[in-house]
Amino acid sequence: MSNTNKVAEFTAPGMDNDAAQNTIATLDNRMVALIDLQLTLKHIHWNVVGPNFIGVHEMLDPQVEAVREMTDTIAERIATLGGIPVGTPQSIVDRRSWNEYSIGKGLVTEHLGALDKVYNGINGDHRKAIETLSELDPVSEDMITSQLADLEQFQWFVRAHIESATGQLQS
């Protein structure tokens, strides 16, 4: 019998169980996305080649570390609310709703164009989560809002490498 779907019989004081369960589900979705993102960022770090390689290679590690901390913060919030954060590899694959990152070894522009699209999904879904959480839990809403500020800055860093002088993104 697996305990991965069990939840505690309590939640944060002052929060009703339905709000807690909906908050946990929203946070779980964000946790899965951020675990996937941190692995994707490391994959790109290892496989990017070409002009500006070192700048991109060195830009990605701080993003990996920050996203890892975001994931931990979300997992701990899930546990605080009585949920069970599940971060095993198969469970992440089973719960994600997007396709695997498909580029292996690739040029800076190829990887960063694809990474920009990854950030579009992550950041757009963080915004949707903020909207959902605004009705459920202001603490979780603030947490995701704070993360989004960093994630949007990371996307800006990526876009600075693939933006033309006229402001067009090269994908």
UniProtKB/TrEMBL annotation:
Keyword DNA-binding: yes
Keywords on record: DNA-binding
Transmembrane segments annotated in the record for this chain: none
GO MF assignments: DNA binding
Domain Ferritin/DPS: 25-163
Domain of life (superkingdom): Bacteria
A matching Pfam family: Ferritin
Family recorded in the similarity comment: Belongs to the Dps family.
PANTHER family: DNA PROTECTION DURING STARVATION PROTEIN (PTHR42932:SF3), GENERAL STRESS PROTEIN 20U (PTHR42932)
Protein name, entry field: Starvation-inducible DNA-binding protein
